[in-house]
Amino acid sequence: MKKKPFILVTNDDGVQAKGIAMLTEIARELGDVLVVAPDAPRSGQSSAMTVNLPVMYHELERSDAFTQLACTGLPVDCVKLAFSQQIPHLNRRPDMVLSGINHGSNAAINVVYSGTMGAAIEGALYHVPSIGFSLCNHEPDADFSAVKAPFRAIVEQIWREGLPQGVCLNVNAPTGAIAGIRTVRQSRGCWRNEFMTSAMPHGNGVCFWLTGEFVNEEAAAQDTDEAALNQGFISVQPVHADMTHYPTLQNLVFKM
Amino acid sequence: MKKKPFILVTNDDGVQAKGIAMLTEIARELGDVLVVAPDAPRSGQSSAMTVNLPVMYHELERSDAFTQLACTGLPVDCVKLAFSQQIPHLNRRPDMVLSGINHGSNAAINVVYSGTMGAAIEGALYHVPSIGFSLCNHEPDADFSAVKAPFRAIVEQIWREGLPQGVCLNVNAPTGAIAGIRTVRQSRGCWRNEFMTSAMPHGNGVCFWLTGEFVNEEAAAQDTDEAALNQGFISVQPVHADMTHYPTLQNLVFKM
Question: What's the ipTM?
Fold first, then answer.
């Protein structure tokens, strides 16, 4: 194995979540660790950044091998801050970014909405191997014990073998027994019936709470993340930030 | 031309921005219009959603041909709300989504961070033709007059010809004279030196303001959005929400 990595751990459920505690445990078995994670839950924040306010942090723990910071920002802010090398006492650049373990699935279209994956994509933009991990159980007290060994094996393999520049991984684990690990593409899908309305006081009408149902638009496909998860496999999707739809490039001509 | 479309207009600079006024003007020349836009600037919000608070709106204007709502949410919330068909007096489903005109470039990696493009991608997930428009000038009083004719021509062509399901467009215009329109791929790039530190009171150290410099990692390429813009062309990038990096799919095998 190569030198011991300096691993940045972050998430979107906040620094106190159970999932990041398990990912931090995995990371500390493999290298020195810096945790920079939101000081409270920041789910569904995608690649959003804090634009009109400053970002701050406070230190929860600091030693040579382990530093833990709680940040007022979003997941992407946490990664940017860690790579900025402007934090006093911390000018080591991370060798690897691990994000999660998210409480809930980031398969299919959720990769686009996910703050966990926003952070992993950000790590890839800094040209280090980056992985977002999720367990398909959104309960705060979800049991992460079954995924520790396979997630650790994935981290070790990626640290050993690397990833192509600009590519990160979206790793999702099913609940229950794990049948194996499959490399897969993103299933086409979307959310529908997305709001619950509830009354506001003083006759002010209704407000809208986000909810909804996920629709898998490729339920018959066998090579997708959704299919792998439904069959008890951990899904590994290679992800990149190039959103160009290449087939359309050839067919689209505008005149002026 | 087909029937007159019912067009949803949104943005991330807020309902009062100059850019959305121009896009609304274009839309009203072509069809009936519903504006659902953030009640204040929401730049850099990507595909983020409002998860832990309700979303509300207030009506600024309402007639059969034109309704304008200011929403407390993020750009993606605005699109979800418009398609929810839960707004009283409004159960027409939009036929098309136009987002912008953004004050500032959404070319290259900015497509990932952009709330303007988050909204356009969301429109594609509702299976209607969707376009995000930007002008490479981030000033609040930017002059949008030169882009009106070419942007309107793009909207008309897409309404006539449609887009493949799940594909939307990221349209960026240069400042100054416009040489033409080019369909292009996303340039590889990233942001660096991203924080300005500034002191906090009471000896509390520093806080971090987002800033930074864009680095085009493919400055020599001729087929990218950045190259088109640098040569005075409007860039049109076809965008989709499948973030899978297909070349890596073949090479990545995990054992358990």
Answer: 0.96
